[in-house]
Design goal:
Low-confidence stretches: none
CATH architecture of the largest domain: Sandwich
Structural class: alpha+beta
Number of helices: 13
Strand content: 15-25%
Shape: globular
Number of domains: 3
Number of strands: 19
Helix content: 25-40%
Distance between the termini: 19 Å
CATH class of the largest domain: Mainly Beta
Largest sheet: 8 strands, antiparallel
Length: 389
């Protein structure tokens, strides 16, 4: 699905929270077509919670949609004439939390989560059809989380500027801090279909639509910070200490209690077991289940109707335990048979493979059995099998 062009360790050592990086041709599949986007525009009701139109600011929903009654139910629908007019004049359509409506967006978010080892959101989609005289829709700004921007249709220009307030926290918006971006961009590039751009939090960027149709998906990466851990540790382990619970009263000194509490806080924060507990809780949040059904697995239990061109990928929420030949998924440990384990090992080392390539790599002389094992693992949500007809 995504060719990151490096190992996860290389990414953490060379790029994470350090500098932006352009990955040409990183998206190995064409995931969104106009037909897909048309379906999303039909499914997502045009309200300002998930469906936003920007043209010199946020456009009120009633300016491009209307209330209708469909089969006895009242809902909001696009007013095509007014919506098309905004789009033709350079407006930007933003589809927030796209993973709620698009399993494809969810899979991209999960794959980035697996690669970075961090929590991600499902991504926001950005659709434009015209430029605005070289101006970006949102102007120069920074985000308080890392971003992976993936271009699926058309092209879009990105200008990236060095941070003036490195590593902002959630409340450190550029408008609150009041900084101005540097004049000269560190990166000035045009994302083409198939390209992906990594932008660390705090790096200024300006996204400029060109005079052509464009759709890109931005997935946010939310890493726990040192402050998050310190606050979690103190909140969890200091409440049982009387010195930390004492009130601060005017006219009296609590210096001894404060000193003692700081010593206890230091001991709690520096305890390796506490850090391991915190990181385990973070890891568990990465593997929230996404329900995606494939009824074709039951219609073809041995994979006899599969052509071999389908893409098989490891579920982003899975963790392989090589010492036990087991896989952990959503807190449950599964032990596949020998062929199933060979299949999983091949996917974990190579990334997504076509079913034919997977059969050749995992067990060249057991193609039919590998097909059956792939279908069995897909039923248990350990792997997914690409488009089925």
């Amino acid at each position: 699905m995504i060719d990151f062009g490096m190992t996860a360790q290389d990414f953490r050592e060379r790029l994470l929270e350090q500098r932006p990086h352009l990955l040409k041709g990183a998206l190995v599949e064409s995931a969104f077509s106009w037909s897909d986007l048309n379906t999303l525009l039909f499914l997502i009701e045009p309200t300002e919670s998930l469906f936003k139109l920007f043209s010199d600011g946020l456009v009120p929903a009633e300016n491009f949609s209307k209330e209708v009654v469909e089969l006895g139910l009242q809902r909001r629908r696009l007013d095509k004439e007014r919506f098309y007019r905004y789009i033709a004049n350079g407006a930007t359509l933003v589809l927030d939390r796209l993973e709620l409506s698009s399993p494809v967006a969810r899979r991209y978010s999960d794959e980035i989560s697996r690669f970075t080892g961090q929590t991600t959101n499902g991504g926001n989609g950005y659709l434009t059809f015209a430029g605005r005289a070289g101006r970006g829709t949102f102007g120069k700004h920074w985000d308080v989380h890392d971003v992976f921007a993936m271009q699926f249709i058309g092209r879009k220009r990105w200008q990236i500027y060095p941070p003036t307030f490195p590593l902002p926290l959630i409340h450190h918006t550029y408008s609150v801090i009041g900084d101005r971006s540097p004049a000269t961009p560190a990166i000035d590039c045009v994302l083409e279909a198939g390209d992906m751009l990594y932008i660390p939090r705090g790096w200024w960027h300006n996204v400029i639509p060109l005079e052509e149709a464009s759709f890109h998906l931005s997935v946010g990466v939310f890493a726990p910070t040192v402050i998050d851990y310190v606050m979690w540790s103190c909140n969890r382990y200091l409440q049982s200490q009387p010195a930390a619970r004492k009130g601060l009263n005017a006219g009296t000194t609590n210096r001894e209690d404060i000193v003692k509490t700081m010593q206890l806080a230091s001991a709690a924060v520096l305890n390796p077991a506490h850090l391991a507990e915190f990181m385990k809780a973070v890891e568990e949040r990465l593997h929230q289940p996404a329900v995606e059904v494939d009824l074709g697995l039951f219609a073809d239990p041995r994979g006899e109707q599969l052509s071999g061109s389908e893409t098989v990928r490891l579920n982003a929420r899975c963790k392989l335990d090589a010492s036990r030949a087991e896989v952990a998924l959503d807190g449950v440990r599964l032990k596949p048979d020998q062929l199933g384990w060979l299949l999983l090992k091949a996917l974990s080392t190579s990334g997504p493979l076509t079913l034919a390539a997977l059969c050749q790599r995992a067990a060249p002389h057991a193609g039919d059995a590998i097909r059956s094992a792939a279908v069995d693992l897909a039923k248990r949500d350990v792997v997914s099998i690409g488009t089925r007809h």
